[in-house]
Amino acid sequence: MTGAAGRVALVTGASSGIGAATARLLASRGTRVVVNYLRSGPAAEEVVAGIEAAGGRAMAVQADVREVSAVEDMVERVRAAWGGVDVLVHNALIPYAVKPFQDMTWEELGGKLDAEMHAAFAVTKAVLPHMSEQGWGRVIYLGTGLSRRPRQGMIALGTAKAALEQFARYLAEELGPRGITVNVVAPGPVEDTRMARMTDVFDDAYKQRQVAATPLGRLAHPADVAQAIAFYAGEDNSFMTGTTAAVNGGMAMD
């Protein structure tokens, strides 16, 4: 399968974890990659340096994806340097509370919903004109298996990502005639991510229970998720849209 060689991909939240793995993989397939970050400038520059050392092309751009003006400025910088964004991988993690509904405030639940959708709305709006003009585009959102299978304390994340999944389906229906596909990659638990390092919530015993419930016998690595994202981003993948790919080693099967 060929990648999106020669295309430009914007990967939000790409300074570490799934975003960084995705940026490296897309770059290795010939895509020019924009490594977006919020606060982790040195880490983002390290990702860029690694890509360039391997012969790829990348640039780091700071922007809070929840801020429309910041997103527009970022996309304008990309346009000036490389032309428009052909592939959007929206991976940026929007903070959220981990607690039961009974202990949660509306600001915590509603705030997560608002920020999640506001970010997806802003980044998608910003890249659509170029994709529509050329009649080709790939939009990939990062979801979660928690959208369909609840887990204690994760109501804010699961509800917000469920909204994002349905948003993606509506966009897929609307944008298909323009040659733009819209899909979701929904990982299960992933090693080496910020969420995995929340030891006050996910201790070793909890992790071992997750591994035991996974037929493939381990949790996902960021590179596993990046492979699914890169598939959706590819030139050859022209007839899948409105779908959700579960990357969970068989922990949950629909």
From TrEMBL:
Family matches, as InterPro entries: KR_dom (IPR057326), NAD(P)-bd_dom_sf (IPR036291), SDR (IPR050259), SDR_fam (IPR002347)
Domain Ketoreductase: 7-193
Matching Pfam families: adh_short_C2
UniProt superkingdom: Bacteria
Key words of the record: Oxidoreductase
SMART domains associated with the record: PKS_KR
Any one GO molecular function term: oxidoreductase activity
Gene3D superfamilies: NAD(P)-binding Rossmann-like Domain
Family designation: Belongs to the short-chain dehydrogenases/reductases (SDR) family.
Annotated protein name in UniProt: SDR family oxidoreductase
Organism of this sequence: Streptomyces fagopyri
